[in-house]
Specification:
single chain, mainly alpha, 2 strands
């Protein structure tokens, strides 16, 4: 399949291919010109999987201990991204619910909304702000330990593609079969006609539009099932972990303190 793709690429982009060959010859003879990574990144504009090839080759020859360290770091990034996604949807859910209850004059009912974090609605919002801040600092702490290996470079390329797709055609990424099927099987919005996963859910602090499939704290899912979290299932069902008790290294051992 890759050979067929290569032949198709050569026939469709003859001039680009010829130019790359000339650059490679000049680089081999005189040691000048762009790096191989720059060439592959340039080719990726036309051929989506090309730019990961040199890093996949490097990864194949990478020592096992280095690969293991890099894989551990990549897993930590994935878990942090998942936690950030859950808290983003919880923030949106809390604010939507508090505004709705305030309009109805029923703010006292927010105290019984769920058993995650503080009971009082004002403390819930304040706690959410603390967690947002802690997550931001955790991202910084993890990226300070960023390895300089092939897996990290492949991850950067893949994430960059996802962000580019979300900017230009978010539906294309969100309708990926693995993402859509997982959300549907978890009884997320993809299992209903609301289509929330295909719509902007809100804004990040830097004003980027936030798209995502459902987590435990998707407001639409909570309204559909009629409860926030089922305590008996908390330890057994994926995504039902109570992150309100999570601690971060930047945190005071006793938790956050109001200044």
């Amino acid at each position: 399949m890759m050979i067929q793709d290569l032949l198709r690429f050569i026939s469709d982009h003859t001039l680009l291919f010829a130019g790359c060959c000339m650059v490679l010859i000049i680089k081999a003879l005189f040691g000048i010109g762009p790096t191989f990574e720059m060439l592959f990144d340039r080719m990726q504009m036309f051929w989506d999987w090309v730019s990961t090839i040199p890093w996949e080759i490097n990864e194949a020859f990478q020592p096992s201990d280095e690969r293991a360290r890099e894989a551990t770091w990549a897993l930590e990034i994935c878990n942090l991204a998942r936690k950030s996604d859950i808290w983003m949807q919880r923030r949106l859910f809390l604010r939507e619910t508090i505004i709705e209850y305030a309009i109805q004059g029923k703010l006292e009912k927010v105290d019984d909304l769920d058993k995650s974090g503080p009971k009082d609605w004002q403390d819930k919002l304040l706690s959410q702000t603390y967690i947002d801040w802690a997550l931001s600092n955790k991202w910084y702490e993890v990226y300070k330990r960023e390895p300089n290996g092939p897996l990290r470079r492949i991850s950067d390329i893949v994430v960059s593609r996802i962000h580019k797709t979300l900017r230009n055609n978010p539906t294309k990424h969100l309708l990926r079969q693995d993402l859509y099927s997982a959300c549907k099987m978890r009884d997320g919005c993809c299992a209903r006609a609301c289509q929330c996963c295909m719509k902007p859910r809100g804004l990040y602090p830097d004003k980027r539009i936030y798209y995502a499939h459902c987590t435990l704290y998707c407001g639409c899912c909570i309204r559909s099932r009629g409860f926030v979290k089922h305590e008996e299932l908390g330890k057994d069902v994926e995504n039902l972990a109570d992150f309100s008790i999570s601690h971060f290294s930047i945190e005071d051992p006793k938790g956050f303190r109001v200044l």
